[in-house]
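Customer escalation, tier 2.

The customer says the design service returned an amino acid string that "doesn't look like it belongs to this structure." They asked us to rerun it and document both sides in this ticket. The original structure tokens are below, unchanged.
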């Protein structure tokens, strides 16, 4: 059955404003079913979790359902919720670094979002551990497995790597990197924020010890999710309040969970599961967009063989911010910048200004792509 984008778009009230949204990598538009789930929870009787009153049981069921749904969606063991992927990564970097010693080593990549770099760099500085940097190929946009594995040693404690670059879309071979890292008894912390909206996720197959993602990138509310094996989480001792539970995964969650956002996350996952053929559809639109941009003589930086439907480009002679502004005036939302992938942007030679990023999502259609290409053509 062909992917029915018209039926999908009918679920997104925001699209009625008329913009062509290529800003999904920074946060997707939300379908009506997600908004309904958030609203319904907010106007229902909900109390702190428990088993005595109906409102307590409702809260408990919302949390349990969200954990189960996310675990199934990611094929993962245990789910920890947090305010954002950034917050969760800082929390886990602090927790893991309690066991680091001077001379231990941490590996980060030039391709990653800063949220999977700076928490590890700062934790390493505090522990007097050494940070080793894996560089990607500026020409191809590829992060070869060897770029990471050649840095491994018996002192490596954590390898932090993206499953998909939020700037270039590149999808490194995480499973092969993880295999080599585990031979050195290192943990593998995978940023799946830009990966999860576009690819069926299998945390076990990726062999990731920790996998983090953000529901608001896959049609849900603003929240962060970390997946890990419960047996691994049992070995970690995060800082927490004395009266709070010591149970896993709750001991990693600081304060009362946002029940309405958990309900929205469940609805988002269920909606994503209904999108049969999404990956193939998105990649077809990416090809249409890339072909058109190249015909216009636009400089395209996204070149890796395996990548998400995300294209980073610039127009010679025009500042990226000016391109962004002029596209926006045409009703085409394709923002410019480094998008917190600061090391990646600098490594590409784009500095802190970055370039223009156009991301395709479940609600993108051919007319959106054509509008983007027509707007870019006016810039030439």
């Amino acid at each position: 059955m062909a992917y029915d984008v018209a039926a999908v778009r009918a679920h997104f009230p925001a699209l009625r404003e008329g913009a062509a949204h290529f800003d999904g990598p920074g946060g997707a538009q939300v379908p009506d079913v997600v908004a309904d789930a958030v609203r319904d929870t907010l106007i229902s009787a909900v109390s702190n979790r428990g088993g005595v009153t109906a409102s307590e049981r409702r809260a408990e069921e919302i949390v349990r359902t969200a954990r189960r749904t996310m675990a199934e969606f990611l094929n993962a063991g245990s789910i920890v919720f947090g305010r954002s992927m950034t917050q969760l990564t800082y929390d886990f970097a602090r927790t893991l670094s309690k066991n680091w010693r001077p001379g231990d080593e941490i590996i980060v990549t030039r391709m990653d979002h800063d949220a999977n770099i700076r928490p590890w760099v700062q934790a390493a500085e505090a522990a007097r551990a050494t940070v080793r940097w894996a560089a990607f190929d500026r020409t191809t946009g590829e992060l070869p497995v060897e770029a990471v594995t050649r840095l491994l040693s018996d002192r490596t404690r954590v390898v932090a790597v993206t499953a998909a670059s939020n700037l270039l879309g590149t999808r490194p071979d995480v499973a092969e990197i993880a295999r080599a890292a585990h031979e050195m008894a290192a943990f593998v912390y995978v940023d799946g924020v830009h990966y999860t909206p576009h690819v069926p996720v299998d945390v076990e197959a990726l062999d990731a010890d920790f996998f983090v993602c953000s529901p608001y990138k896959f049609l849900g509310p603003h929240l962060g999710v970390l997946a890990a094996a419960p047996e691994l989480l049992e070995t970690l001792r995060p800082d927490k309040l004395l009266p709070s539970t010591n149970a896993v995964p709750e001991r990693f969650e600081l304060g009362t969970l946002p029940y309405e956002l958990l309900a929205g996350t469940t609805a988002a996952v269920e909606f994503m599961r209904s999108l049969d053929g999404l990956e193939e559809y998105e990649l077809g639109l990416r090809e249409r967009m890339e072909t058109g941009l190249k015909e216009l003589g636009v400089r395209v930086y996204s070149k890796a063989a395996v990548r998400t439907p995300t294209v980073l480009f610039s127009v010679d002679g025009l500042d990226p911010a000016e391109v962004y502004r002029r596209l926006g005036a045409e009703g085409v939302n394709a923002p410019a910048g480094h998008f917190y992938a600061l090391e990646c942007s600098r490594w590409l030679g784009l500095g802190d200004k970055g370039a223009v990023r156009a991301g395709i999502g479940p609600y993108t259609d051919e007319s959106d792509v054509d509008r983007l290409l027509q707007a870019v053509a006016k810039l030439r």
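Tier 2 assessment: The sequence is consistent with the input. The radius of gyration is 21 Å. The mean pLDDT is 97. Sent an explanation to the customer and offered a walkthrough call.
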